[in-house]
Design goal:
This protein is an alpha/beta fold. It is 37% helix and 21% strand. The chain has 18 helices and 18 strands. The strands form four sheets. Strands 1, 2, 9, 10, 11, 12 and 18 form a seven-stranded mixed beta sheet that branches. Strand 1, helix 1 and strand 2 form a beta-alpha-beta unit. Helix 1 runs parallel beside helix 10 and helix 3 runs antiparallel to helix 4. The longest helix has 22 residues. It is globular.
Length: 495
């Protein structure tokens, strides 16, 4: 008899939902995490009077109570809904190019249409047609992913799904400002409109417009802790401050893990929430199928980021911040902005998250907890001489402050606490190559039509979950862990 029915590597979003789903279904499950607390990206830390959210900018998919197809159903199944307090954001985002436009989109289909028409008059019909297209492409994409035969899928998905976002925006609109505002969420997906599949942006916009953007009281750490507590209450076992050094195999099938203290633990199935390159490295070269080596060689490590976590001695209103999420860009040239992510030239675009427009409880009264984030690849950071790292980090961080001053003038004078994270920080903390925050580059070749690492690891008994095996982001990875657990349970029932 195995020590456990299943071992789950990594207590990030997907690892937590996978482990808890398996344990609640009756499988004896061990969760192994190399850090001292659960969450991965879904965590927080303290500096002075402030607690800082690490990575959650907006949680999609929560929806209203009773609304179908939402994360609430997953949270109910995991037994954590009553432990969470959700904070709804009334707006999607505020998009700003200084001197060109300053537009706030409400988290509502009609409100978004009205706001865009007010900012860019004469485009009402085009805007309405574009929003209908988002709904249609998303509906049929979901139907196709759930197995609907191709001949029954509306041709709208085949006409638009894999086209670049830039092409679809150009087909619908002439005004570059309007196109820039509608494409703003490309930064959440890590690819610019010229490379991003329209179906991915459509799905993202649909998720936030239909189910609203949310935060959590206590931040994402509250969610991670709640799921871990449910896992432990169901009888699950967890090892923290513990690294998996190897995935064991027997007869070509995953059979357990070896920990950093040399202990070997046997299991009927192994679920990995670690990065794919690290997961397969744990198997050893002789156990990695040729098909996997070929597949990994064709993939590109994705984008990371630079983040300023800031505690500011002023309220959002005093700073001039009117929405929880604000995107500030120097201009409408998204391609140039994305290209800057491969260099140390000044940041050209930032996502500003204020966790106190709708407070989550992390900042003292009269103060604000802010996050400034810009996309950056990790290779040029890794190439920096160690002696130059600190100077380069703070010089680059200063360019983010210059951008935020367009919407929060004088903010520098109110900064009380600041912590700067770079791709090297992400790589060290997450264990991800290049510090990648979304796994592999999320271009059109990484979509569900071309890659399905989550469904097939090519190693029996090894199951892959998380951003490196599918789509990145909070909602996708939370759902992925539970989905992988369901597949594992079905396979066991059929055996």
């Amino acid at each position: 008899m195995s020590d456990f029915d299943a071992v789950v590597i990594g207590a990030g979003n997907a690892g937590l939902t996978a482990a808890t789903s398996l344990q609640l279904a009756g499988l004896r499950t061990l969760l192994v995490e190399r850090h001292h607390l659960p969450g991965g990206c879904a965590t927080s830390f303290r500096r002075g009077r402030f607690e800082f959210e690490v990575a959650l900018h907006q949680l999609s998919g929560v929806g209203a109570e009773g609304q179908p197809f939402t994360l609430r159903g997953l949270f109910d199944r995991l037994g954590v809904t009553d432990k969470l307090e959700f904070v709804e954001e009334p707006d999607l985002y505020r998009a700003v190019v200084p001197g060109r436009f300053d537009v706030t989109l409400p988290a509502d289909w009609q409100g978004t249409s009205d706001a865009l028409e007010a900012a860019f008059p004469g485009n009402r019909d085009r805007i309405e047609r574009f929003l209908r297209l988002i709904r249609d492409v998303t509906f049929w994409q979901i139907a196709a992913r759930r197995g609907m035969p191709p001949e029954q899928v509306d041709p709208v998905l085949f006409r638009y799904g894999l086209r670049p976002v830039r092409d679809v925006l150009d087909e619908h609109f002439d005004d570059p400002g309007l196109k820039s505002v509608l494409g703003t969420y490309w930064t959440y997906l890590g690819q610019p409109p010229a490379r991003l599949a329209f179906q991915d942006l459509a799905l993202t916009l649909y998720a936030y417009l239909e189910f609203k953007p949310w935060h959590l009281m206590g931040g994402s750490q509250a969610l991670s802790t709640a799921i871990l507590d449910s896992f432990l209450a169901a009888g699950g076992r967890a090892h923290f401050n513990t690294t998996v050094e190897a995935i064991l195999t027997e007869g070509g099938r995953a059979s357990g893990v070896r920990l950093d203290d040399g202990q070997e633990i046997t299991a009927g199935d192994v679920v990995s929430n670690a990065a794919l390159p690290l997961t397969y490295a744990m198997l050893g070269p002789d156990a990695v199928p040729a098909a996997v080596r070929t597949d990994l060689a064709t993939r590109r490590v994705g984008v990371s980021g630079v983040v300023l976590h800031m505690g500011v001695a002023a309220t959002p209103a005093e700073l001039g911040l009117t929405t929880s999420t604000t995107f500030v860009h120097t201009d409408e040239d998204d391609e140039r902005t994305f290209a800057a992510a491969r260099s140390l030239e000044p940041a050209r675009g930032i996502c500003v998250t204020s966790y106190d427009v709708a407070p989550i409880g992390f900042a003292p009264s009269g103060a604000t907890h802010l996050s400034l984030m810009t996309l950056q690849y990790g290779d040029h950071w890794a190439a920096l001489p160690p002696a130059d790292y600190a100077r380069t980090k703070f010089a680059y961080a200063d360019t983010l402050l210059e951008l935020v001053e367009a919407v929060a003038p004088g903010i520098r004078d109110a900064v009380e606490e600041v912590d700067v994270a770079t791709p090297l920080t992400m790589a060290r903390y997450l264990g991800h190559p290049g510090g990648a925050i979304y796994g592999y580059d999320q271009d059109r070749t990484e979509g569900w039509l071309f890659r399905n690492s989550e469904r097939e690891s090519h190693v029996p008994g090894l199951h892959l979950a998380g951003s490196w095996a599918g789509m990145g982001g909070f909602q996708p990875t939370l759902e992925a862990g539970a989905r992988v657990a369901r597949r594992l349970l079905r396979a066991r029932a059929a055996a």
